[in-house]
Write a structure and sequence with these properties.
Blueprint (H helix, E strand, L loop, with lengths): L2 E7 L18 H9 L1 E3 L2 E2 L5 H10 L3 H4 L15 H7 L3 E6 L14 E4 L32 E3 L3 H17 L7 E6 L7 E3 L1 H8 L26 H36 L3 E7 L18 H4 L3 E5 L6 E3 L3 E2 L3 H6 L17 E4 L1 E3 L2 E3 L22 E2 L11 E3 L12
Parallel strand pairs: 1-7, 1-9, 2-11, 3-12, 4-5, 4-7, 6-8
Antiparallel strand pairs: 2-10, 9-10, 13-17, 14-15, 15-16
Helix pairs in contact: 5-7, 6-7
Amino acid sequence: MTDILLFMSDQHSHRIQGYADDPVVRTPNLDRIARAGTVLDNAYTACPLCVPARAAMISGLLPSNNGVLFNFNAISSDQATFLHSLNIAGYETVLCGRMHFIGPDQRHGYAKRIAGDRTPTFHNGMPKGKKKTSKVTGFDENSSLYYIGPGDSPVLAYDRYVTDRALEYLAQEHERPQFLTVGTYGPHFPYVAPPDLYEYYYDRVSLDDVSDTFQGYPALEGKMQEADPEVARAARAAYYGLVEQQDRHIGAVYDAFQDYLRRTGHPGIFLYVSDHGDMNGTHGYYGKQVFYEPAVHIPFLIQGDASPQGIPSTAPSACWMWARRCAAWPGRKSCRGMEWTSPSSCAPAERTPSGWWCPSCIPISAMGTPHWAGWCGGGIGNSSPSPASQRPMCYWTRTATPWKSIT
């Protein structure tokens, strides 16, 4: 069985990556993973807010259907997640760090946790009648510009802790096939970056998309924040620095995972995704909770034994469909409660030296027997093309209606 490592950051906008043609940011590790694997260029979050995006990803249900619409909601503990399917299949499902679960259930299907979270895990804010006596340790858009500049922060410290725990775990031997999630908090604000990175980016970042005259939609009235050039430059320099710092963590974990695979002789898949992006000054907005490109367009990389090298996918995809693909893993038992759409063909498959490749789907077929007949997942398939189409088709990935993004 294939070992799988999912590295999930928080609030990383797709556009701030070297392979995504940003001319300033330095992301050598993401760039080399992109060259060695597959890039989903049009991956979008289910919701530009942490908890709803993550709940959608693990449950396979849109926020409108799983009831998680805000950061103080939680899916029910009896709701099936793709982790339950992997447990049934024999995987050891391990959570290292952040998944922003709310409430007493801090696993939702993960068999064990080796690094805790750091944001509040209580439901629905402070109880009525209780006086708030301490500061909440998280940050929201309304305070994102209060802390800007070079230095250290709880986010940076937490990510060092998570990365160290992940490296320790990958240095050990494990009997069962692994599904390891490494969850970091960066590049989420506060916009505080290591001093060397902040200074490097301060005079290099562009402010061409920062505006205090942008006419947004009426529903967004009141979200416009400081567009002063000095504040905007500081926030952007720090965000770029946070992305580069995140790239360093990703590179360290990726290399440790490759070492683990070499030691064990196991096949492996490495995935990188973020829950949503960050406006970081575009149109005068900061943070998320808007449906503009910087907030909803996310990075999604897959590198592994069955992933074609350097082949980008421009078809629309969504990280919340990951749960469906795992639940529909061929030859394995799957949990009820996942959300399915009607089968509709997405993109014609293309032949590669390794077999058939669907440019619209994640190559999760490497996790089990490659198969095309009626399961959602795409990737490399060994089945012969049907006489009618001359090429196999995969399902449940591309939207049936025209779509466009809002910049």
